[in-house]
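Changelog-adjacent note: as of this version, every example in the card shows the full chain rather than a window. The one below runs 255 residues end to end.
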Amino acid sequence: MEITWWGHATCTVEDSGVRLLTDPVFARRLAHLRRRRGAPPPARAAVADAVLVSHLHADHLHLPSLARLAAGTKLLVPRGAVRAVPGLRRLARLDVVEVGPGDTEKVGPVTVRVVPALHDGRRMPVGPRRSPALGFVVDGRARTYFAGDTGLFDTMAEEAGPVDVALLPVGGWGPGLGHHHLDATRAAEALRRLAPASAVPVHYGTYWPIGLDAVRPHEFHSPGDEFVRKAAVSAPGVRVHLLDHGESVRPEVRR
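Full-length structure tokens:
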């Protein structure tokens, strides 16, 4: 079982011979955002048996990146996504499946279970509120929870269930975070509640608004290290793997 972090919320989860890719964004620039750390992922990052898209924001559902997927790749998107994002219809060579909380999908020997997230999942800035934000639990040799983009909510641990590895957002792409996001402090509390064997912080230190390099730069650079420090206090039994862009780890599992 192996996790590779490509930057932002983009990860490859390899389990039981299956490659799953989360929220693929391969661009150097995305609207007003510029990739400030880590080279864009190589071509092999787009190789996947299935892709898990947590919500419709363009830094998570990025159509040019999805267009790089091979024909026949299974693409799990929030229910209502095809209606809200017409560009998905141009990706007809992909196996697009709309899902919502409580759904499950088989990908070879692996089961993907869809769980809720606390986030505004619509296509911004004016999309209708018809698509939920999602998290996913990948159940194979390990149980891996990809939280997507989410705030801390009371039933998070109950919805995810027992997990071995947690991929948790710990930052964002701008100088402020709202209630529907996890910062390092809230992510450490989520880790305490989830109590996995291992964790990988994601969704930080990759994209930043053009022209705002000098505005609260610690919000770009420090969330990963801050999460490690806070997790050591909140959840000392969890092994946290702080990855560089493109780095892989074989995390501890209990099974």
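Structural remarks: The CA atoms of residues 121 and 133 lie 4 Å apart.
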